[in-house]
Amino acid sequence: SGSQAIKALREEQVQVVLINPNIATVQTSRGMADKVFFLPITPEYVEQVIRVEHPDGILLTFGGQTALNCGVELDRAGVLAKYGVKVLGTPIQSIMQTEDRKAFAASVEQIGERVAPSACAETVQQALDAAAVLGYPVMARAAFALGGLGSGFASTPEGLRALVTTALARSPQVIIDKSLKGWKEVEYEVVRDAFDNCVT
């Protein structure tokens, strides 16, 4: 998706500065971005590039979890405001709201949609207590992470304890959801531009 974004920006005559530590990806090939920085995607390094390159905007949604987390940190630290860098695409507030699974569930319920019964936990014991109320099997999801980081299904307290211990080592919050195993999932995405044109 990052390569496609670069191509689309170049078609619109937008100069592209890419930060990507992976020299093996097609994104970093000659002729893609105008400038490539082979640097870790951390607030410190990204701020240095912003200071040197003076970009008008930054895209966070093409670098996976690392870029999302980095963008949120840059925003919280006031770096983006300091250099007048606008977040293009998905706004920071939306990123934070979708990554905090409790806030996301509240937003979904606000528009009249249903979500699986769930509870937040910040300790292993809170997670075990929540699962006892919800009933096994449950799904443990690390908050502030779009998958991975100890997320998974648990059918027993022992299995849940192992999952949550891993998740809490990397995330401050875990969401315990009632398992929907066996249900069919249909996923769709909507892309909308500034003129309210939508493609589903």
UniProtKB/TrEMBL annotation:
Signal peptide boundaries: none
GO CC annotation terms, alphabetical: cytosol
Keywords assigned by UniProt, alphabetized: ATP-binding, Ligase, Metal-binding, Nucleotide-binding
ATP-grasp domain residues: 105-193
PROSITE patterns: ATP_GRASP
One Pfam family hit: CPSase_L_D1
Catalytic reactions of this protein: hydrogencarbonate + NH4(+) + 2 ATP = carbamoyl phosphate + 2 ADP + phosphate + 2 H(+)
GO molecular function, one term: aspartate carbamoyltransferase activity
GO biological processes: 'de novo' pyrimidine nucleobase biosynthetic process; citrulline biosynthetic process; glutamine metabolic process; UTP biosynthetic process
Chain ranges passing through the membrane: none
InterPro entries the UniProt entry points to: ATP-grasp (IPR011761), CPAse_ATP-bd (IPR005479), CPSase_dom (IPR005483), CPSase_preATP-grasp (IPR058047), PreATP-grasp_dom_sf (IPR016185)
Gene3D superfamilies given in the database record: 3.40.50.20, ATP-grasp fold, B domain (3.30.470.20)
PANTHER family recorded: CAD PROTEIN, CARBAMOYLTRANSFERASE FAMILY MEMBER
Protein name per the record: Pyrimidine biosynthesis
Lineage: Eukaryota, Metazoa, Ecdysozoa, Arthropoda, Crustacea
